[in-house]
Amino acid sequence: MELLNDMALFVEVVKARGFRHAAEVVGMPNSTVSRRISTLEKAIGLRLLHRTTRKIELTEAGQIYFERCKRIVDEAKLAHEQLGEMLAQPSGVLRASLPVDFANIYLAPLIAEFARRYPGISFDFDLTPRLVDLVSEPFDVAIRMGKPPDSNLIARQLANLSCYLYASPRYLEQSGEPGHPTDLAHHECLGFRMPKASVWTLNNSDQVVEVTVGGRFQLNSVGLIRRLAALDLGIAVLPEEIVAEDVAQGRLRRILPDWEGPPVPVYAMTETRLLPAKTQRFIEFLREHLKSSAM
Q1: Nearest residue to 141 via CA among 3, 33, 289, 276
Q2: Is 17 left (phi over 0), alpha (psi -120 to 50) or beta?
Q3: 71/28 same-domain check
Q4: For residue range 248-269, what is the model confidence (pLDDT) as tens digits?
């Protein structure tokens, strides 16, 4: 890289026909320009310029070197310009693994907006529940909810989704509304399937409470928990982004408003830190929109 920079500086000196004008163009002291050209000549082992008090002239070797350097420098500038265009409008197929319910319920409109913003990108999404192998399978990124396990993958946190308690108005009318987290032990609670009794950890500004809850449904689907809660079958702890539409339509109502569950982190998982522009833009876009919605 240092050699390429010195080659570019040499081209500027020749084009400006002197060190002083070249120094003005590149924004560095005249003495620095002269020293770096001398260092370049020593590295090559040939004199490139004849220096006089009034002007510089190319030697025969300098003429050959200038013609080659100019082509190389022009190609390098073109490469930077093309990469800049690629970053501005990336293209290619984006292969991503997404959480099924989160993608269907919340990410879909964000993906639609992203697709409109970057028309050069096409999409190959995997929404199966399985955890894809980013090393052996051809995925650019995997979006995961919850703390990722220790691995050699690169985890970029996109957001922390706040979780609150929700129930349908009809369920509350039939079963009563809890006034304290301990009252949940006497309610139908829609929880994630666990090997032991479900314990919900809730907190407010002053304290943390753990409540052992029960119910007829133990599930591994956020979407189904949300749907069953809206169908009057119990109380659920869910990210507010997941239930926003149900709350707006009156199908669910937030209860115990001073209390909340542990936030759910959302991560973008990649095999490497060196990402193509399409993947960079997708991760940046999700981070921007998820964080703004979680504030």
Answers
A1: 276
A2: left
A3: yes
A4: 999 999 999 999 999 999 999 9
